[in-house]
Design brief:
The chain is mainly alpha-helical. It has five helices and two strands, in the order H-H-H-H-H-E-E. It is globular and about 55 Å long.
Length: 141
């Protein structure tokens, strides 16, 4: 008799990786859904076995860590993941690309940047851009 599987199927892991979840976010999601504690190293090993490693790294676009589980599906976070995928030369769906372009245009029009406040119930907030903030290159159309 084999041991009980702690992590979800490879297809579920692949979906989560494609969503841009970090190892920690996968750990958190497994706990949230199954009430099972798994380690980041177990997640890394499972992703490696499934051939799902060396995908997109999001640290340059999502510099905050950790991000609370209840903030992991926030719209700004999804947009930053899409941006990271685009910048890595990975494909986006037409809908994802259009949503990202619209979001980037909104930031540009409002001269805003997105920030993250861990202890805030909403997590992500928009702030007026300062001269010291990095201005993202023009929107691709």
């Amino acid at each position: 008799m084999s041991a009980k599987r702690l992590l979800p199927s490879e297809s579920t892991l692949e979906k989560w990786v494609d969503e841009g979840l970090t190892h920690q976010e996968i750990v958190d999601r497994v706990f949230e859904r199954e009430n099972i504690v798994v380690s980041k190293s177990a997640v890394a090993a499972a992703l490696s076995r499934a051939g799902l490693t060396n995908r997109v790294r999001y640290e340059t676009h999502i510099p905050w860590s950790p991000i609370r589980v209840d903030h992991s599906r926030a719209y700004p976070l999804s947009m930053l993941r899409f941006l990271a995928r685009r910048d890595a030369g990975l494909p986006l769906t037409k809908d994802q690309s259009e949503r990202l372009d619209s979001w980037l245009k909104r930031l540009e029009d409002e001269d805003a940047v997105v920030g993250y406040v861990y202890d805030d119930p909403n997590g992500f907030k928009y702030f007026r851009r300062k001269k010291s903030d990095i201005k993202y290159p023009p929107i691709r159309t």
